[in-house]
Amino acid sequence: MKYLSEYRDADIAKSLIARIKARATRRWTLMEVCGGQTHTIVRQGLDELLEGAVEMIHGPGCPVCVTPLEQIDKALAIAARPEVIFTSFGDMLRVPGSDCDLQQVRARGGAVRVVYSPLDALALAQQHLDKEVVFFAVGFETTAPANAMAVWRARDLGVKNFSVLVSHVTVPPAITAILESSDNRVQGFLAAGHVCAVMGWEEYEPIATKHRVPIIVTGFEPVDILEGIWMAVDQLEAGRHEVMNQYVRSVRRQGTPPARALVAQVFELADRQWRGIGEIPMSGLRLREEFAEYDAERKFGVGGLKVTEPADCRAGDVLTGRIKPPQCAAFGTICTPERPLGAPMVSTEGACSAYYNLAKYRATDAAEATS
Amino acid sequence: MTKRPPVNPAQLSCPVPLEQSDRVQLGHGSGGKLSAQLVARHFLPHFENAALSQLGDASVVTVGGAELAVSTDSFVVHPVEFPGGNIGTLAVHGTLNDVAMMGARPVCLTAGFVLEEGLSLTLLDRVIDEMARAARAAGVPIVAGDTKVVDRGKADGLYINTTGIGVLDPTFRPAPARAEGGDAILVSGAIARHGMAIMAAREGLAFESAITSDTASLAPLVDALRPLGGDVHVLRDPTRGGVASTLNEIAVSSNVGIEIDETALPVPGDVRAACEMLGLDPLYVANEGVMVVFVAEAQAEAALRALRSHPVGADAVRIGRVVTAHPRIVALRTPLGGTRVVDLLPGDQLPRIC
Amino acid sequence: MCLGIPGRIASIRDDAGLTMGVVDFGGVRREVCLQYVADEVAVGDYVIVHVGFAITKVDEEEARRTFEVLKEMSQLEELEWMAEVADASLSRTQKPDVQGAGESL
């Protein structure tokens, strides 16, 4: 596929790896904020290839992983209602709530459907006027324009049996929170290319200046990520700390203004809980008052639900880079991919799950070597 | 490995005991870890016998000195018709293939139908027509059948169960436990087509493509490999759970390590594009007309030639090898030379946004 | 965090005030909302699509230019590589080399 396959070119990737290794005079610690980039790094084994020069910390940028437990529980409560068709992106179905997940709600008879786009959920509402269709509107800034449009469009078309359960988070406050934590180890960031495709990168400039960290707007293919890492390492070696754009083919400084405009019309900034991390001030989006009738929390009276997260799970420390997954006592013992305690163990490329598989591989390798 | 403090799992309660749900979940049928648990914990303790415990694609029973391979499978695919076939084609090919993977020659099939009240007879005729065509092409008669009708809403149109019987060949007995260090690993054709053809036709994700299911009888390919005799160690058709799950099963059954090369995996362009769109890994997507072959390295080229001599195996390629390092683990070499573990999925693969 | 893939716009239409279109992803086609990029795209352009929405237009000229730089860089002679590696190991014992080797990007 054009603009995809060429950025997986092994020769270019290898030359970038050689270049990064040659340039690094010490081991730098970088964080890729975005789960999509983590996916590529883990799947391509980029960590392993950069060993010694760069340590990548997998950040909190998976919308599925950071959706707080109480929002999952609200989703479960709504999805179990007989009049509801609950729609969601596929990867939310397996995220554990307090006592089950959406797949189990479906097994117990709840109408839970996977959709590709929030507009598909809206179309479902138009087809099933006798049902309440609820969409689980999770995501970062990239997904906000899509979810905003579904709500806007519902009002425009007068669709009354559609609502959204919002769990929207924004990236810059999370980066700031990580940088301001007392034990921060992150020296540079790869900013998420698709978030910036919508939002641009102006918000990142004061962060880079204030905290003296390079922030590189980066794409998602191996060559993109390696070039982003190269740009960060080059800045660090030179003692610079600027925002740079690696993903020039898709990201402009202003982002995509019409998308930003609709997001601002439908949503407003709010404090938001991040799973495993806690509340980050003004780090989320909620529906504006004028769209209250599309707010599933109000429609189904679940707004007051409060839940405490399992104390054994140190997902927050993992997602902020304070510890590596194997340093969590629950890792591999009471928390495994089949029985995930926290979200990073849920998806195959979640930080904990990735470590779990790698550890298994290296353990058998080591056993073989010593036997 | 970083050392971690010892934890006594009995002292801690997991708030999300997913596997201990008191209900059957879709994941129990996905061919992954949950399926394996369901069989091991709920069926085997009650049905235990020597033939069943082999847990192969088909069981071996001896009747009057002759060894027979017996396999049964139920088909509940939705939608019932999809590009490249329908539930009837699958019901024939799926069961025939399970028998063929034992190295057996299929001799007959039975078919049981569960029909939902209100099902269109025209649709039923199309299904039966395709089914008959597939059985004729494979030269295997459908010798017994049964029909039940259930109330509207109690079945998704129609379900089909087929049972296949084949005659085993004493000189050709591939088995999942026979993989050996050094074996070459081949696949007989392009992977991930069936699962993506179904996905494309499903509401909610609908996209247009020219992707067709690969559904086909693999018996002719098995016949083509027969002359290689004992050098063909394992044959397996990677249906639900895809190539990744099948390789994991073989690695465990044979207690060997498996190494595959990502660049060698034959994934057609449009199938890859559909996987990109939904964030799916083609290694975990279902196939219905592809088999994985483990063959002694010395015969690898001969096996490839034999597979390619038949249209169904025209795109056969080598994807990896068996190693003695990391037993029971399937490792994948990435195009950049990195490594990752290809694990069994805990349940169904779901479209991602992240 | 957000799976977005590039596709080529095959057709554009108006759906009750919303700009929609069909986007081709390497042989797979899907209906996509083009509202956010409506002012800058035409049939044949590439867009990045996330959950059924085009979120940005791919700048093909920029893509070509930056990719060529990467491609050229990867084809540098081995000798130049050696020199660079040597430079870097030298700089380990000296002050960081502010000029850097990376400004070509």
Structure, explained:
The complex is a heterotrimer of chains A (371), B (354) and C (105). Chain A is an alpha/beta fold and 371 residues long. In chain A, 42% of the residues lie in helices and 19% in strands. Chain A has helices spanning 10-23, 35-44, 46-49, 63-66, 69-79, 102-107, 118-127, 144-157, 171-180, 193-199, 204-211, 222-238, 257-266, 296-299, 315-319, 351-370; strands at 28-34, 54-61, 84-88, 111-114, 132-139, 162-169, 188-192, 215-218, 243-245, 267-274, 278-287. In chain A, the strands form two sheets. Chain A has a six-stranded mixed sheet with strand order 4-3-5-6-11-10, with helices on both faces. In chain A, 63% of the residues are buried. Chain B has 354 residues and is of the alpha+beta class. Helix content of chain B is 28%, strand content 23%. Chain B has nine helices and 14 strands. Chain B has a seven-stranded mixed sheet with strand order 9-11-8-12-10-13-14. In chain B, 51% of the residues are buried. Chain C is α+β, with helices and mostly antiparallel strands. Chain C is built from two helices and five strands. In chain C, strand 4 (46-50) and strand 5 (53-57) form a beta hairpin. Chain C is elongated, with a radius of gyration of 21 Å. Chains in contact: A-B, A-C, B-C. At the A-B interface, helix 1, helix 2, helix 3, helix 6 and helix 16 of A face helix 8 and strand 14 of B.
